[in-house]
Design goal:
By secondary structure, this protein is an alpha/beta fold. The chain has 2 domains: 3-228, Spore Coat Polysaccharide Biosynthesis Protein SpsA, Chain A (Alpha-Beta Complex); 233-303. Helix content is 49%, strand content 13%. The chain has helices spanning 16-29, 47-57, 73-83, 103-111, 129-146, 162-167, 178-184, 209-228, 233-263, 275-303; strands spanning 3-9, 34-40, 62-67, 88-91, 117-121, 158-161, 190-194, 312-315. An 8-stranded mixed β-sheet has the order 7-5-6-4-1-2-3-8, sandwiched between helices. Helix 1 (16-29) links the parallel strand 1 (3-9) and strand 2 (34-40). Helix 5 packs parallel to helix 8. It is elongated, with a radius of gyration of 26 Å. It starts with a strand and ends with a strand. The relative contact order is 0.13.
Length: 316
């Protein structure tokens, strides 16, 4: 199997037949073995019925997963990655804004040029300005923080080596940061290609301003998890030890100052009258709590089970 194409979808019944027919034309033209895995993320329209019909019409080429509930795009990709058998795994959106004509070149970048990840860049976009401007700000921030020089982290059109998607864990809303997760897992050959962005033909956009806010929060999460997810003591322990030592230094200073004044018959007030006593005490308590958080985090990290449990209602 040359390619597995993962298509998460939510209420996209109108676009699916056209999308699959287009994919079929492209892969047949380039003589590529292909499977299409469509993940219905709890659609409330007739999307699942269309997926079932396509699975019958195209035989073994089209496979489907239906979630009981709307878990989100990361969950859909995670389950699609688990099913994927192709040596190159390509993800794309179901709304026809991603062109299947880009599939052969993305496949070539991974299979021939040896990229671990090949990401699409929608350089010319047909989205409204209230979507483009936040996207530019978001992508610039992610580039600065992660050091990965991609222009469009949000582009759904990407290609991966099979080993990449089998080695990373996508949960929450981390689908935006799969290149970051791949880099942290040791897959560092990440490339980019300008791809066509097409106007939406059917349905409505799922974009909202809340995605901008959650995107930045997820960025903080993925940076923390990739650096300290398996070793939380390295973060909480160091920070806790530093806080405790600062508080201890204040306590030692106050105690030494009191003894010095008493030995030299100088006026000495109660240690508890100094604000530094309470600052130091608070720092020591916070430091101890942070250290214990790191210790508990280590125990959880070493004994954690699966974090992604999604209820799949049907498969075809």
């Amino acid at each position: 199997m040359d390619i597995s194409i993962i298509i998460p979808l939510y209420n996209e019944e109108d676009s699916l037949p056209e999308l699959v027919a287009w994919i079929k034309r492209v892969v047949d033209q380039h003589q590529l073995g292909c499977e299409v895995i469509m993940v219905d993320d709890g659609s409330v329209d007739g999307s699942w019925g269309v997926v079932q019909q396509l699975a019958t019409e195209y035989g073994g080429m089209v496979r489907g997963i239906r979630f009981q509930h709307n878990y989100g795009k990361s969950a859909a990709l995670f389950c699609g990655f688990e099913m994927a058998q192709g040596k190159v795994v390509i993800t794309m959106d179901a709304d026809l804004q991603d062109s299947p004509d880009e599939i052969p070149e993305l496949y070539r970048m991974v299979a021939v040029e040896g990229y671990d990840v090949a990401s699409g860049w929608k350089k010319k976009r047909y989205d409204p300005i209230d979507k483009r401007l936040p996207s530019k700000l978001y992508n610039a921030t992610v580039r600065f923080i992660t050091g990965i020089k991609l222009h469009d982290f949000n582009c759904g059109l990407k290609a991966y080596k099979k080993k990449v998607v089998k080695s990373i864990e996508v949960f929450g809303d981390m689908h935006r940061y799969i290149p970051v997760l791949a880099k942290q897992a040791g897959f560092k050959k990440i490339g980019e290609r300008v791809v066509q962005h097409r106007p939406r033909k059917y349905g409505e956009s799922k974009f909202g301003w809340q995605r901008l806010v959650t995107g930045f929060l997820d960025l903080l999460s993925v940076v923390f998890l990739t650096k300290f997810g398996k070793k939380p003591m390295h973060f909480f322990g160091v920070l806790g030890t530093l806080m405790f030592l600062i508080g201890l230094a204040m306590a030692v200073y106050l105690g030494a100052s009191k003894i010095y004044r008493l030995n030299h018959s100088l006026p000495a007030t109660l240690i508890t009258n100094s604000p530094y006593f309470f600052i130091g005490l608070t720092a020591m308590i916070i430091g101890t709590l942070l250290f214990m958080s790191g210790y508990l985090g280590e125990l959880i990290a070493r004994n954690a089970g699966d974090r992604n449990l999604y209820l799949i209602e049907e498969k075809v």
